[in-house]
Amino acid sequence: MSPHYILAHAILPLSRLEFPGWGWLARPLGVFSNERSARRNWTGLPIRIVCGKLHGYRMALDLADWSQRRSWLLGRYYELDVQRLMAALLKPGDSFIDIGANIGMMTLLAARLVGPAGRVLSVEPNPDPRARLRRHIEMNGIENVEIVDVALSDAAEDKVLSVVGDHDGVATLADMAGGAGVTRAHRLRTVVGDDAIPDGLPGSVLIKIDVEGYETKVLRGLSRVLERYRPMVITEFEPRHLVRAGSSPEELISLMTRRGYKAFDVFVRRSPLRYKLFVEPMRGTQARGANVLWAHESMADGLELSDRG
């Protein structure tokens, strides 16, 4: 058994409680690193089954993956800002569309939040994490999640989904000139989002999009969905990823503004022993965090969120 795993296992009581300072103890063990030297120390360990503390479902985690190592240590997916925002926005009977669902960390939380009367659509074109996503749904007996195995865009065309590095979550439809860092490639045909999302979704609709820079194209292909449901939308907002995919922060903001949406920064701060969610109007083209909430102007004024975390 890896000594790094043994030492990290010893601090689980602190990390699961998110006690201040646990990260300083974990960092020397390579818990947060995706460097090859760090991955070697965590490769070959058995899959760990963890009960998620935010949703109560079981998660099958591969500790060789840095993202899943964090989930193992924390007992939750590491992007707390999005999860707190989901908890504030989703109610029983609502609908959640998880575009770029990966292995289902956000899908699991949404399934719990919307309950049996709600509906979750998990969109994941990458076959490797999609198989893990399906395992999570089946092992927990979840019945309100539908897996949609397509790649969304603004046009139907043949594309290559490139996996960059060893983390399945970094898969992009952007043109990876020269293939630098690409470890796997999947040929597929994209689908216009409006053709993949059904009518009649129950309750209010929340969409989360994390597609490594392809957010602008995905949103352009969801024009009817945005008009029909006027959903709240959470997107990753990484300028370098947008540029790599042929877009930009300015183009994404312009697109959503023309459709009547306003942008809000989403981030959490610790105060002092718990994390508090902040949702504030975004100024300019720089986001304070890695994610942005888009709210239609009919709902954006006086936007108030209840942090139930």
Structure commentary:
The chain is α/β, with parallel strands linked by helices and 309 residues long. The protein folds into two domains: 3-74, no CATH class; 80-300, Vaccinia Virus protein VP39 (Rossmann fold), CATH 3.40.50. It is 34% helix and 25% strand. The chain has an eight-stranded mixed beta sheet. The longest helix has 13 residues, at 127-139. It is globular.
Sheet with the most strands?
8 strands, mixed
Uncertain ranges: none
CATH class of the largest domain: Alpha Beta
How far is it from the N-terminal to the C-terminal residue, by CA?
A: 35 Å
**Total beta strand runs:** 15
N to C succession of SSEs: HHHHEEHHEHEHEEEEEEHEHHEHHEEEH
Count of spatially separate domains: 2
**Helix content class:** 25-40%
Query: Any idea what the radius of gyration is?
Result: 19 Å
Question: What's the rounded overall pLDDT mean?
Answer: 92
Strand order of the largest sheet: 5-4-3-11-12-15-13-14
Corresponding CATH architecture of the largest domain: 3-Layer(aba) Sandwich
Shape by Cα distribution: globular
For CATH, the homologous superfamily of the largest domain is named as Vaccinia Virus protein VP39
**Remind me, CATH topology of the largest domain?**
Rossmann fold
Put simply, the count of helices is 14
What portion of the residues fall into strands of 2 or more residues?
Answer: 15-25%
Q: What structural class should be given to the helix and strand makeup?
A: alpha/beta
